[in-house]
Write a structure and sequence with these properties.
Largest sheet: 14 strands, antiparallel
Distance between the termini: 30 Å
Oligomer: single chain
Length: about 270
């Protein structure tokens, strides 16, 4: 997955098609960069965790959807059950932070996961940094250091670009898209030993590695590998997928932290 600024949008949008197919397969519909409306919503995630491990990071209880996912060496898990667990946990937490890495591209995203998803963050690559704010039906990105609201119906090329790229960014950063891709593999096997995952925030976590049992294809996307990491309590730690679309092979690594930490997403000013 390449997360590029507008100057490299052809590569970005080509890879976004892979994620968009995953979203369609899961029944999710990433909202387009819509026409501006008269209101500018503020989206706040205020989860109700069961306990607090630290003053800042709550403990999120695994939902019932995760009961079918046995975290034990050699256990077999269906893709449908694993996907449902990932979605269920994301909804239970309500918000979190995501780090995405692919080649020379890196994204840092704070997101709200609910019936009104929203996210804010930055994407950095060799061309520079692009900031973005996405609500359920609106998108803003920075172009040449200026905030531009997306409108794919506009006659203004910058607004069309902001809407198109905003849609691609939303697809990349939505946990539901990852869950849709997970569901497409019939089965996964829990590996024998937990992996030690170095977190981008400097910590580490021991997590079970659930690996797709065989390559699979969907709607023109050939997935050579798909891995999901879950910590004890079915905490979603991350994913790694390698897929080919249109002759381009891409490996994407996602890492999730700060589940349940409140996130506020507001339209940009200026």
């Amino acid at each position: 997955m390449r997360l590029n600024r507008p100057s490299a949008r052809p590569a970005l949008l080509a890879v976004a098609a892979v994620a968009a197919l995953a979203a369609c397969s899961s029944g999710t519909s990433p909202a387009p960069g819509a026409s501006p409306s008269t209101s500018a919503p503020t989206v706040v995630a205020s989860p109700s965790p069961t306990a607090s491990a630290t003053p800042d990071v709550p403990v999120v209880a695994a939902p019932a959807e995760c009961d079918a996912v046995e975290l034990a060496p050699g256990a077999s898990v269906t893709g449908a059950d694993l996907s449902a667990c990932v979605i269920g946990f994301s909804l239970a937490a309500g918000s979190g932070h995501e780090h995405v890495q692919s080649g020379d591209s890196t994204a840092e995203v704070d997101f709200v996961f609910s019936d009104a998803p929203a996210m804010t963050g930055t994407m950095v690559d060799a061309d520079g940094t692009t900031s973005f704010v996405l609500t359920q039906d609106r998108s803003w990105i920075t172009i040449d250091g200026r905030w531009v609201e997306g409108d794919i119906t506009s006659g203004d090329s910058e607004k069309v670009l902001a809407g198109t790229v905003g849609t691609a960014y939303r697809t990349f950063a939505d946990p539901a898209v990852s869950a849709g891709m997970i569901a497409m593999s019939p089965t996964y096997t829990v590996q024998d030993d937990q992996d030690v995952i170095d977190l981008v925030n400097g910590g580490e976590v021991h997590a079970w590695r659930l690996q797709a049992d065989a390559p699979f294809s969907m709607m023109g996307v050939d997935m050579q590998e798909l891995i999901v990491w879950l910590a004890d309590g079915h905490v979603v730690v991350g994913t790694q997928g390698t897929g080919t679309f249109g002759g381009v092979q891409t490996t994407t690594v996602q890492q999730f932290t700060d589940w349940g930490v409140p996130v506020v997403v507001e339209p940009p000013v200026g």
